[in-house]
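User: Could you check the structure of this?
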Amino acid sequence: MDNSQIQKKTLKVLCLNSLMPLKYKMLINGEFVDSETKETFNVINPGNSQTIAIVPKGTKEDVKKAIDSARKAFDSGVWSGATPGERAEKLLKLAYLIEKNIPTLARLESMNQGKTIKQAQDSDLPFAVDNLKFFAGAARMLEGKAAGEYMNTGTSILRREPLGVVGSIVPWNYPFMISIWKIAPALAAGNTVILKPASYTPITALELGKLAVKAGFPKGVLNVITGPGATVGEELVTSPKVDMVSLTGDTTTGKKLIQLSANTVKRLHLELGGKAPFIVFNDANMNAALEGAIVGGFVNGGQDCTAATRIYVHKDIYKTFVEKLTQKAKKIRIGNQLDRKTDLGPLVSESHRKRVEEYIKIGKQEGAKAALDLGRPKGKEFEKGSYLQPTILSDVKQDMRVCQEEIFGPVLAVLKFSTMDEAIEMANGVAYGLASSVWTKDVHKAFKVANNLKFGDVWVNDHLPLTSELPHHGYKQSGSGSDLSMYCFDEYTQVKHVYFDLTDKARKSWHYTVYGSK
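Assistant: Sure, the predicted structure tokens are below.
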């Protein structure tokens, strides 16, 4: 029985709720392989602390093999030299295979990351499929500017070309969806890719590698390497054979990548941390704003860079808003992430739960009031999981750490403001600039606030909507470069100017400025 048959069999057993863990291999040059040292690590279900998979612990040598594979595939032209239509065909085939396997992939995603099955199956996976389909079409629309004569002696054309080898580093909060966000535009543009999933959540990235092979991607075009960031990620960033690294992660990691990439001066695409403001004016539809704050704040357990973690409420409605928000948050259903009735599953790990709890403690020490602080849920079913119930901190001040720093958990900080200018100043008063929203019925107010918020995404009377056609990117320390949309091709391609002389003269009119006389 070969490796693919073994994986298929164990996958079926896992889906029948067996305790038998899946055993995976990495994808290098179209082959499923163990790490060079044969070392592995366990992947844990944060809902019950059980091992659900065993994956290879990649080494620097493994990464080098993957890089060489991707380099060879790119330089040979097997992918970069393929027509846009040929690349699109493979991407559409991959989208079809993902779509066909959404129930299984969603279950694995939910078990591994802790997100609810309804979010994984009804939101993350369908969005990933749509993203692949979008970039399959976009591959056939990728072009430079039309040729033209910008000097009277010749014609200039602009070519848009792939960069080469791309290292894609994916976070643990959206393992599958962001893997697609990374590889879809990179592959559509003609690059080859080494995909490095987070060590907490590698399962669906490895499944993605299997589907890519089934879709017929040439060897070396997509490689999937598992292992610690200090080993795998660092090798990708420092290797001169890698032309670009795209990271979605925290700002601290982004800063480290910038330092590590200095010697090779490679291109970096960084989608980093966020601390999204959610501004509610006294003329807003309160019911809509309350619903938006719950959904925007507790999405994915608050483990989302775009989550509405800073709730700014006008002083006239502040008390009422906090009371109603608290009552609404109490109705959030916490439990087994595979139950479709569950609204809030476990956090990704025990260590992360402790980190979030420490921030709640810090907020109280700084003077914030706990409008809601339910702590860890009681009951036998919660004993082995990293569950944490919603927390709402009121009377938060702008300079508190819970307002300034990314908590990345089910914790909302609620602040009071008096004027529009104050709301704008407070909203902009953090190091981040990824996502934001403003809630008001006044169109003039909405435009003024939106125009002055220093964030890549500004939603009016909603929070979170993203689509494949429109860009998603950060200002300030939330990073640089776009995900999604045609704009992200600027990250994964380079523009070449080609000039054709039309005079056929040996001596051009300007040569005298360098050599000889006019």
